[in-house]
């Protein structure tokens, strides 16, 4: 009886030793597999009134519709994740609608002050293309934007510190279950959704939007 | 009976040995991580001083990268300022103030003659008591040998000048600061990057390296 107990105790000790030896590799692997790992925000926005302003800097009328859709998506996501108090996009539309010519001449800090914002998430939408390849039937899209945060009082760049042009964000359309590649608006919606997600997640701890593997 | 006891002993040793083998160096690694290695600032004279960060590069570089001077200047200033504005800053950074990087670049544009002048004669004209002067010797986002691929590289010289009574002297100097992005990519470059990303990350690496001269920091992980 005593030897059985001893053997049992020995087995238990060996089991503990083995568990200690393996460490938490298995648990770690399982956690990695099933948990939603959040990436830290690239920039924590100061908690002040924030305007999201999207335009094509070189030609503001070029991507007007897409810019508005992007701005709405970004505001919604940042509101949802309580990144900072956001100015509704309708306020910007009001200022723009009052006098379009005067609006075109305003600089970014002036626009921010006109809507009561203390900082601006400025998105320069440099590319938003959807084409059908030669002899193809499906739309393929490419979007590129540069993002920076500007202080409304001084006009200085708050983020990113190492690039005046802003952080580059890119997306290329791809096959997804709920996207019909023969439908232009479906592909454009997908592009807006992903670009907005990638821009928004710069400012809160987020599960990253799937990286683009298509290369430059 | 003795044979059996000996066999059990040998078996236990084997099991223990296997346990140690499977654990690798996790415990050692953990212990090493817990001992945080702090590296002190190499230059500690910015406290209660007004400092400007000036970046110089040749005309070819500034044609290719018009914002290079301003971006590097802003990156370095922002990182030192962040440490100085922290809740519990190092004593030698208390009271440090900084000239706007935009103003420094503006000064350079307004005074093109400074390009060819000795920096010790330029510094007293800038209305600052400390000047962090960075000369960019080389900057590229694609290696010369393979322009289709990407790899950022920057080489810079750093000088710190103290200005008093309208005279400046170099009190700290470090030459040939070389950084690459991605750090461990092949020399001929790599795919899957863009000029914009490589540009930003290379400047980030250089800003951090230079700011670390003035700020206590953790030793880089191997």
Looking at this protein, list some descriptive labels.
heterodimer; A: 216 residues; Rossmann fold; 5-stranded mixed beta sheet; 5 strands; 19% strand; flat; B: 222 residues; alpha/beta; 2 domains; two-stranded antiparallel sheet; 7 strands
User: H/E element string of chain A?
Assistant: HHEHHHHEEEEH
Number of helices of chain A: 7
Shape verdict of chain B: flat
Oligomeric state as shown: heterodimer
Helix content of chain B: 25-40%
Report on the biggest sheet of chain A.
Answer: 5 strands, mixed
**Overall domain count of chain B:** 2
Q: Pick out the low-confidence regions of chain A.
A: none
Distance between the termini of chain B: 52 Å
Brief synopsis:
Chain A is α+β, with helices and mostly antiparallel strands and 216 residues long. Helix content of chain A is 41%, strand content 19%.
Describe the protein's architecture and organization.
The complex is a heterodimer of chains A (216) and B (222). With 216 residues, chain A is an alpha+beta fold. Chain A has 2 domains: 2-34; 50-200, ABC-type transport auxiliary lipoprotein component (Rossmann fold, 3-Layer(aba) Sandwich), CATH 3.40.50. In chain A, 41% of the residues lie in helices and 19% in strands. Chain A has helices at residues 2-22, 25-34, 64-80, 89-98, 100-105, 108-114, 184-200, and strands spanning 50-55, 119-131, 140-151, 157-159, 167-172. In chain A, strands 1, 2, 3, 4 and 5 form a 5-stranded mixed β-sheet that branches. In chain A, helix 3 (64-80) packs across helix 7 (184-200). Chain B is an alpha/beta fold. Chain B is 38% helix and 23% strand. In chain B, a hairpin with a 2-residue loop joins strand 5 (152-164) and strand 6. Chain B is flat, with a radius of gyration of 25 Å. The model of chain B has no long low-confidence stretch (mean pLDDT 89). The A-B interface holds A 10, 14, 17-18, 20-23, 146, 156-157, 160-165, 167-168, 170, 215-216 and B 8, 12, 15-16, 18-23, 26, 67, 70-72, 74-75, 78-79, 100, 102, 150, 191-194, 196-197, 199-201, 203-204, 207.
């Amino acid at each position: 009886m005593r030897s059985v107990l001893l053997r049992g105790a020995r087995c238990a000790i060996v089991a503990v030793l083995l568990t200690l030896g393996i460490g938490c590799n298995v648990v770690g692997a399982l956690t990695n597999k099933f948990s939603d790992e959040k990436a830290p925000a690239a920039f924590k926005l100061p908690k002040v009134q924030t305007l999201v302003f999207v335009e094509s800097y070189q030609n503001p009328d070029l991507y007007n519709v897409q810019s508005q859709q992007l701005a709405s998506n970004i505001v919604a996501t940042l509101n949802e994740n309580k990144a900072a108090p956001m100015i509704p996009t309708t306020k910007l539309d009001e200022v723009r609608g009052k006098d379009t010519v005067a609006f075109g001449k305003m600089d970014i800090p002036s626009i921010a002050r006109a809507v009561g914002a203390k900082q601006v998430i400025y998105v320069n939408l440099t590319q938003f293309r959807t084409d059908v390849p030669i002899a193809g039937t499906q739309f393929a899209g490419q979007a590129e934007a540069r993002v920076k945060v500007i202080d409304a009082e001084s006009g200085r760049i708050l983020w990113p510190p190492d690039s005046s042009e802003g952080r580059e964000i890119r997306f290329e359309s791809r096959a997804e279950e709920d996207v019909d590649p023969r439908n232009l608006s479906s592909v454009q919606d997908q592009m807006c959704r992903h670009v907005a997600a990638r821009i928004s997640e710069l400012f809160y701890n987020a599960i990253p939007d799937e990286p683009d593997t298509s290369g430059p | 009976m003795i044979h059996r006891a000996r066999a059990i002993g040998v078996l236990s040793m084997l099991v223990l040995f296997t346990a140690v083998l499977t654990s690798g160096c996790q415990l050692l690694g953990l212990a090493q991580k817990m001992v945080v290695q702090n590296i002190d600032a190499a230059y500690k004279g910015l406290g209660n001083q007004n400092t400007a960060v000036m970046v110089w590069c040749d005309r070819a570089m500034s044609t290719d990268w018009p914002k290079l001077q301003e971006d590097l200047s802003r990156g370095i200033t922002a990182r030192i300022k962040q440490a100085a504005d922290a809740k519990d800053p190092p004593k030698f950074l208390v009271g440090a103030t900084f000239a706007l990087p935009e103003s420094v670049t503006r000064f350079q544009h307004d005074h093109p003659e400074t390009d060819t002048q000795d920096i010790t004669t330029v510094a007293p004209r800038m209305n600052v008591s400390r000047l962090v002067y960075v000369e960019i010797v080389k900057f590229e986002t694609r290696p010369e040998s393979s322009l289709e691929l990407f790899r950022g590289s920057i080489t810079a010289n750093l000088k710190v000048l103290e200005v008093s009574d309208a005279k400046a002297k170099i009190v700290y100097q470090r030459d040939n600061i070389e950084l690459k992005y991605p750090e461990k990519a092949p020399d001929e470059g790599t795919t899957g990057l863009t000029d914009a990303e490589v540009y930003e990350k290379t400047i980030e690496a250089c800003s951090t390296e230079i700011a670390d001269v003035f700020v206590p920091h953790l030793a880089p992980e191997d």
